[in-house]
Amino acid sequence: MGVTLLIIMKTITILLWVLANQVTCQTNGIFPARILAQQKAISEDSDLSVTCSTFGFKKQIMVCVYLCKDDIWIDRKMQKPDQNDTTFTIRSVGLHHSGNYSCVYSTCNNLLPKVAMRGDNVIQILVISNILPADISVAGPSTVSEGDHVAFRCTVSYTLQTLGECQLINSYLRRNETILQVQTFDVTRMEATFTIEGAVMRDSGHYSCVVLPSKCIREHEKTLCGNNAVFLNVTVNVNWFLPVFISCGLITLMLSLGLSLWWINKQAGYLASSNSCATDVMGEQQVQTEGEDLDTQEGDSFSMEVDDE
C-alpha cells in the first residue's frame, strides 16, 4: 500500500512539474517541440543529427527553434512559417556530447537566456568511445627464453558501452606504442587473449592493451573473406659467398698440408740418402787407410830383413 501511494505521489509530482514548465515556457514565449533522431548511440568523431519538429504545436508563423542539451539550449535556428521540421547537426562529436536532448521554440526573435527548459520529449544520446585503455597481464613469468610462447590476457574492469550493444569488438596489443596484433574482444567475458609464438629478442619491451568499443564485429563478419587470396612462401636466405669461401679455405688448407707433408718426406729421404753416401765414403776411406798401413808395415819388414842379411 505504501509503495503504491509513493508511486502515485511521484507521478503527480512529475505531471505538476511538466505542467508548470509548460506554463512557464508559454508565459515567456517558449513552447515545447518534439525531437527526433535516427541514431541514439553514435561513435566518437562522427556527426550527430537530430530533428526538431513543431508539427501540431505552432501556427503558420516564423519561430526560432532551440536545441537543448540537459535542459540548456546549445543551438538555435529560424523556422519559416511553412516549415515544421528543423535539423541540427553537430560535427565530430566527443564524449562530452552525451546527454539528454530536447527541443523548444519561441515566437520571440530575442535570444533566450541560458535557463532550464525542456521540450515535449527527451532522447538520450550516447557517444561511444573509439578507443579505451584496458588491463593487461602475462599468463606466466615476464621473463622467457627465445622460442617460448607468450600469452597476454587483456581485460576491462568497467562496463563497456558499445554500438547497438555489440558483443564482439576489436582490441589491440601494443608494444612500445606500436600495434602488434588485432584480436576479437568478447564483451560478455570482458577479455581477449593475445599469443606470441616463438619469442625472440626483439619481442622484449613494454606491452599494453586497448579496446575499441565503436568497432563492432558482427557474428557473420568473423568468417568473411576477401576478394582473393595470395600465397607467400618464406625461404631461408642463405649467403652463398660464405660457404664458397669456407670450402675454398678448406681446400687450400688441405693442399698446403699435403704439400708440407710431401716436402717433409722429400727432405727426410734426401737426408737419409746423404747420410748413406757419407757412410760409404767413410768406409772406403777407412779400408783404403788400413790397406796403406798394411803396405807400410810390409815395406818396413822387408827393409829390416835386407839389413839383416
Q: Span from first to last CA?
A: 187 Å
CATH topology of the domain at 23-128: Immunoglobulin-like
Largest sheet: 8 strands, mixed
Roughly what is the average pLDDT, rounded to an integer? 81
* Shape by Cα distribution: rod-shaped
Number of separate helices: 2
Task: Report the order of strands and helices.
Answer: HEEEEEEEEEEEEEEH
Q: Which blocks of ≥5 consecutive residues have pLDDT under 50?
A: 21-27
Strand content: 25-35%
- The CATH superfamily of the domain at 23-128 appears as Immunoglobulins
Helix % is 25-40%
CATH architecture of the domain at 23-128: Sandwich
Tell me how many strands there are. Answer: 14
Structural class: alpha+beta
What is the CATH class designation of the domain at 23-128?
Mainly Beta
CA-atom Rg in angstroms: 53 Å
Domain Ig-like: 133-225
Keywords: Immunoglobulin domain, Membrane, Signal, Transmembrane, Transmembrane helix
Signal peptide: 1-20
Region (Disordered): 285-309
Account of the protein in words:
This protein has helices at residues 2-27, 241-308; strands at 30-36, 41-43, 48-53, 63-69, 72-79, 85-90, 99-106, 123-128, 132-138, 150-155, 168-175, 178-186, 191-196, 207-216. With 309 residues, it is of the alpha+beta class. Among the domains are: 23-128, Immunoglobulins (Immunoglobulin-like, Sandwich); 132-223, Immunoglobulin-like (Sandwich), CATH 2.60.40. Strands 1, 2, 3, 4, 5, 6, 7 and 8 form an eight-stranded mixed sheet that branches. Strands 12-11-14-9-10-13 form a six-stranded antiparallel sheet, with no helix packed on it. β11 (168-175) and β12 form a beta hairpin. Residues 133-225 form the Ig-like domain. This is Ig-like domain-containing protein.
